[in-house]
Structure formats: C-alpha cells, structure tokens
Amino acid sequence: MERIEPNKLTENFFENISNEWMLITAGDKEKFNTMTASWGGIGFLWNKPVAFIFVRPERYTFEFLEKGDYFTVSFLGMENKDIHKICGKQSGRDIDKVKETGLVPHFTEMGNVCFEQSRITLECKKLYSDQIKKEGFADPEYIDRWYNTHGNFHQMYVAEIVNAWI
C-alpha cells in the first residue's frame, strides 16, 4: 500500500460508506476485531481531517474501541461484499473473522490493524466519543425507526485521520 496525505484523497465517501461499506477494526497484534459499518463519514473538524463512526455498545468491536486510542477504517471494494456480509452478521465472539473471510491482516507502523485486501485504509486517532441520546433527536421518528426495536443507542467516535493508504 502507498501512504497518501488524507487531504489528497479524492474518493466519494458518500458512495463508499453507503454502498461499498467499510470495516472498522480496533485492537492490536495480540487481539483485534473488525465489523462492517455503513454509517459514518469523513470531514474536517478542529482543523484536522476526521472520520466519524457509529458503533452499538453490544458489538464486540465496541470493547476494542473503548480500550484503545486508535482504529482503522478500511474499504475493500464492491468485489469483497461477501467479506462485509460475514463481518456484519457474525460476531467475533463466536467466529474467527479472519479465518472465515480470508482477510489477511497487516499491521501499520503504529501497530494498528488493516487488511491486504483493502483498497483504502484510514488510520484514526480517537478525539471524541459520546453516546447518541434520545433527547438529542429533533425528529422522534428516527428513535422509533432505528432504536426502539434495533438495540441500544450508538456510540459516536470522532477521530483524526493520522494516516491514509491506497
């Protein structure tokens, strides 16, 4: 993979996140987990390039996100949708996702996990975290649609993109 300055990325992250999906990975060489996500974004905040992601507390990856200061966001391309399906429906508590999917882990210089199959990887340092709150919704329809029958409110993470690879 080739390192690129985050502000040089020309991707359409609206398309990438919503249709291609992404893997959120946290942990280290000893133990890590990855999950598929299709909610999040890329932007500019506090004079830094940032990624923001949303993870429910019941997800196994949440435990790793809470313990560490870094995570990665990887885009595998549409040709790897089967990997995303497994990583989105199966828990790392129950299966070895690397073994089940054929993902090949690669470790960054900082010790964070990405995958050889990734066409884009963003290495992110957590800056802010907070749980989505019922009282913060301007339209209660979103609570009914996404939370009353789907689980706990998401934890939101805002993170500086410290490295990017293509």
TrEMBL record:
Domain Flavin reductase like, residue spans: 17-165
Top-level lineage group: Bacteria
SUPFAM superfamilies listed in its UniProt record: FMN-binding split barrel
Name of this chain's protein: Flavin reductase like domain-containing protein
Family per similarity comment: Belongs to the flavoredoxin family.
InterPro entries, alphabetized: Flavin_Rdtase-like_dom (IPR002563), Flavoredoxin (IPR052174), Split_barrel_FMN-bd (IPR012349)
Pfam families: Flavin_Reduct
Residues passing through the membrane, by range: none
Signal peptide: none
Gene source species: Bacteroides luti
UniProt GO molecular function: FMN binding; oxidoreductase activity, acting on the CH-NH group of donors, NAD or NADP as acceptor
